[in-house]
Amino acid sequence: xxxxxxxxxxxxxxxxxxxxxxxxxxxxxxxxxxxxxxxxxxxxxxxxxxxxxxxxxxxxxxxxxxxxxxxxxxxxxxxxxxxxxxxxxxxxxxxxxxxxxxxxxxxxxxxxxx
Amino acid sequence: xxxxxxxxxxxxxxxxxxxxxxxxxxxxxxxxxxxxxxxxxxxxxxxxxxxxxxxxxxxxxxxxxxxxxxxxxxxxxxxxxxxxxxxxxxxxxxxxxxxxxxxxxxxxxxxxx
Lengths: 114, 113
Known about the structure:
The complex is a heterodimer of chains A (about 110) and B (about 110). Chain A is mainly beta.
């Protein structure tokens, strides 16, 4: 069964702290994504990666960075957390090819910044 | 701006009824339209998807209707069940392999017994 695992389901951090959100997929997928989910706004793409060490900005990259050192792992980094980054963060992966449209999501990491 | 507009924001349907969620888009380059279903505490999962060369796609009780000229598509859930209670997201992308998948804002469906 395909699996995308987000290591932290719930985190509480203080303003200014550095936050790491980790995501691992076991499907040997080339593409990995970080989305942010907020009520009334749907899912918004923060960053995606189409290969190891490659990354592209999504719609809302400000305040975030990412790291992909291994194919199976994609990390989201908040260098200095702010209260407006309180949200649900979803990692997803997708294979390569013209009909590989299905995104496989993790269960999410709910971050609260105080 | 929102590339895909979704309505309603929430929907309450009686068991056995039909649930209808609507989405609209402007970008004529979009050619792949998936729907994702998300249960509380879980990530979204692909439910059903359509390309604009067909006007309808049915999988069990779930049907996507697609109107290319109006740039609208909708999800119909027939014989809605309490187990269908979830948040539904429509999405659109210029190609199934494209990276920029644009999501609607979501519809929270509650099916009451």
